[in-house]
What we know:
Strand order of the largest sheet: 3-2-1-4-6-5-7
Number of strands: 9
Order of helices and strands: EHEEHHHHHEHEEHHHEEE
Amino acid sequence: PPACKMPSPRHCRSGSASTAILVGRWGGASWPSTTLLFLRTLASNACVHFFLLSDLPPPAPAALLPVNIRVRNVSIGSLYEMHQRAVGLSLPGGSAALESQARRSSGKSFLAGRDISSTKLNDLKPMWGEVFGELLAGYSFWGYLQDDVLLGNLTAPHAIADPAQLAVSDVVSPYPAPYNTSGVFMLWRNTPAVNTLWRRSSDASRVLSDASYLVFDEWWGASRDNMAAVVAREAAAGRLRLRLGAAGWFGQDYNSQPNTLVCWWRGRVFSSPRFGATRTNMPCH
Length: 285
């Protein structure tokens, strides 16, 4: 299975290497200027496997990438077709519209433009357990991650991907209630029941046919039965185990004070002591 393609270091605790995280970037001329630092924080999490999905050239030569990072070239047309086959995506203009928007994006997200929102892809992230099912086969957990995040030690005790915590969780979010789900970083148990949670939303068909970004992946947009609402409802009914605020999240999302200082050092992220007790091992967005 794909999980066997990337060996895990011997120091990884049992179960930790069964987590795969997808990082998607389409359109634009190149990866962000911070990509090498981003890759360094991924590499420091040797017990987690990362797949970079993009139509861009690899951000570094394959021979130089750490063993826990793999690049998969996925064109925009292929991306659309994968969603169409797996979940029934049917946007106005189809893949041709996405291709046209990508050519006009000038470095923005591949969906940028007047007719298709620059962040429509975020609506589709909760579906990736189905869309990329073959790639994720063999992993116990899968997740998605934006490429503007710095990672601490994800598998440290009590961190977001701590194997002991994952063993008793089905959905893991860095956000507290009532936000529940994040488009920036999420972890999902790789089972049919969890991978199809998005189908339990009354907004599911609209998400698949409306070209605008409905914020289906989070809590604050036009979608009223978004993933935040779905996982809250399923958790309340006892049908899934939801772990919230798992990461000690730190960054622009919740900090309203200017001049925030965050340091990354030897695989750990530290928040500035002047904002309270120094915290480590959390992602920073």
